[in-house]
Design brief:
This protein has 88 residues and is of the alpha+beta class. Helices cover 39% and strands 11% of the residues. It is built from 4 helices and 2 strands, in the order αβαβαα. A two-stranded parallel sheet has the order 1-2. The protein starts with 7 loop residues before the first helix and ends with a helix. 8% of the residues are buried.
Length: 88
Amino acid sequence: MVMRYRAIDLQQQVARATAPDLGAITVPTLIMNGSFDGPVRHEAGRRLCAAIPGAQRVELIGAGHLGALDDPAQYASKVLAFCRHLPP
């Protein structure tokens, strides 16, 4: 699947008919960017984090858009660190 993926969605912005109400999200949310993500993806991560109440954003150093594949250990570490601070 990854070999066939052409990343067209990452190369241009796609217009939406209606934008979702990100402010209505009430679950803990972790936004992840890879340090090799381009500036558009980093800006999208910052905007998502600002729009979702209580969201947190982390950067996976040395990873690209598929951070879980680029560095599974770092990815898991960031997710587990986020989950440890969640209420029971």
